[in-house]
Known about the structure:
This protein is of the alpha/beta class. The protein is 42% helix and 18% strand.
Amino acid sequence: MKLCIYPGTFDPFTNGHLDVLERAAKLFGHVRVAIAVDSTKAPLFTPARRVKLIQENMHGLPNVDVVSFEGLLVEFARKQKAAAIIRGLRALSDYEFEFNMALMNRHLDPNVETIFVMPAEAYSYTSSTLVKQIAKLGGDVSKFVPANVAKALREVFAKK
């Protein structure tokens, strides 16, 4: 059973992320969603909260688990004995960054492949950054994120 890693900050987890995850779950025996603990970003939710928000959306995905990790993605993938890293590509603008990251990861460990997965067209413009901006300004994000994530965003921004 081949394992793949689906990494990201997932702050917040969007319907586009879920779509890519569902596609990856059909391709691999096991998918490990890996929440990056990145000290260069100021995430809205703690890693533990992000893990929980994602886990609450794993209905019908018995071959998926969710963890957090620190450090180099390729090192994490190697330790997990992953066959591949899954990356979502929403638009051409994502391609250059993702392409460069995939080549660097290949340089660091040629045994870990990167596979690009496109989400459904309906999610091609959705990003965590845009969702946070809309939620912060009081907009309705329920079309872009799972219900539990929309609720968590409302709660966070109601306090600010």
